[in-house]
DNA sequence: GAGTACATGTAAAACGTTACATGATTGC
DNA sequence: GCAATCATGTAACGTTTTACATGTACTC
């Protein structure tokens, strides 16, 4: 029953919001979950099949002309139950963290200071872009204005990521300062 | 030349700090880099071999009795060069983010509020543990007090992660508040 | 005419962890 | 006596992405 496979639950979760095709699921994840989750088609289509095999979802095929037929998936009661059980289970596995930026920075004593500063500036730029994306998402989410509880949980997850990037942007500024300062640390001691 | 493989550079980076065996590299990564990187033996040993094949490192075997022989790896000039080039290259790939906690929270409108609050409290607990681990690391890093530049970069990377968890802990408190409040949203409007 | 959106699906490749095998020594 | 530390290495397994195949319709 592969309780480990998180993609499974991600798919069930999206289906909870309403029936959808694999294609639509991909889009939903990209739009609303991209700041903390992603799935490729290589995961989505085979897993949707398995969902049906295990009675967690049903399919209806909508015949189309010109385009491939649409396979519209809906969550079943059993699917809802399995998802709910998972949602309430405490998280045990803390999967590997990998941050390429920090890996580089950690070993950066061997490159010129200017280069390190440049890397940090680029990282800050990237974080600014992400924070702007979040701001747009927030507006979109508020505009959609569905059920109040749904909005609450979307808002909470968005705030989590937003706060994280904001913190990182502040860190970038600090970091640039500290690196600049270390260029000429003697001056301050001389005065 | 597999420029994609980040493990490669992680190994080179650790070897930059001094010659080491695969076993010691694992320990170093676990102690100092664990908050942003990890490597398993299944990655370390085969990649160390490849490092030697590509002249980025050399091995010396130290014969031991009772234990397996030690293979001590040292970085070569070419290794240093390859590492430095990578350090200065801008980061292009932003690998998949996967946050199981947020995935659960996003879909939590379908479980009782109390359960969601419990999940957030557990997440906060985890973050507190991590922040304490960071505080210890900071002390250890200061105590080692090697070269000043080395200390600077370690301190910077640590602060990055530290600030991130601190932000998340604050978010947890906020989040718990907001969830508690949504239990009885009517009261406030009634008054 | 090129590119994008719609729509599904698979095979190959890369990536990464876990578990196993081996085996002495030291501390509880 | 059991667990942990030291030390290396591989095979199996699972996960995940990428690239490919297919094909219409619409927009620039």
TrEMBL record, chains A, B:
<dbReference type="Pfam" id="PF10400">
    <property type="entry name" value="Vir_act_alpha_C"/>
</dbReference>
<dbReference type="InterPro" id="IPR005149">
    <property type="entry name" value="Tscrpt_reg_PadR_N"/>
</dbReference>
<dbReference type="InterPro" id="IPR018309">
    <property type="entry name" value="Tscrpt_reg_PadR_C"/>
</dbReference>
<dbReference type="Pfam" id="PF03551">
    <property type="entry name" value="PadR"/>
</dbReference>
<feature type="domain" description="Transcription regulator PadR C-terminal">
    <location>
        <begin position="97"/>
        <end position="180"/>
    </location>
</feature>
<dbReference type="InterPro" id="IPR036390">
    <property type="entry name" value="WH_DNA-bd_sf"/>
</dbReference>
<feature type="domain" description="Transcription regulator PadR N-terminal">
    <location>
        <begin position="11"/>
        <end position="85"/>
    </location>
</feature>
<protein>
    <submittedName>
        <fullName>PadR family transcriptional regulator</fullName>
    </submittedName>
</protein>
<dbReference type="InterPro" id="IPR036388">
    <property type="entry name" value="WH-like_DNA-bd_sf"/>
</dbReference>
């Amino acid at each position: 029953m592969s309780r480990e496979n998180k993609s499974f639950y991600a798919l069930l979760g999206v289906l909870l919001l309403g029936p959808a095709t694999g294609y639509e699921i991909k889009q939903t994840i990209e739009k609303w979950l991209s700041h903390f989750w992603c799935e490729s088609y290589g995961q989505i289509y085979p897993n949707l099949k398995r969902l049906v095999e295990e009675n967690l979802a049903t399919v209806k095929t909508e015949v189309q002309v010109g385009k491939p037929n649409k396979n519209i998936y809906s969550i079943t009661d059993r699917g809802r139950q399995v998802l709910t059980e998972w949602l309430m289970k405490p998280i045990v596995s803390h999967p590997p963290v990998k941050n390429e930026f920090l890996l580089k920075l950690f070993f950066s004593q061997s490159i010129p200071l200017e280069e390190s500063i440049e890397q940090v500036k680029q990282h800050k730029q990237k974080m600014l872009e992400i924070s702007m994306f979040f701001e747009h998402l927030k507006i979109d989410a508020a505009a959609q204005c569905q059920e109040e509880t749904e909005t609450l949980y979307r808002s909470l997850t968005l705030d989590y990521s937003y706060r994280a990037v904001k913190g990182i942007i502040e860190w970038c500024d600090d970091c640039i300062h500290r690196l600049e300062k270390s260029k000429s640390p003697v001056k301050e001691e001389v005065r």
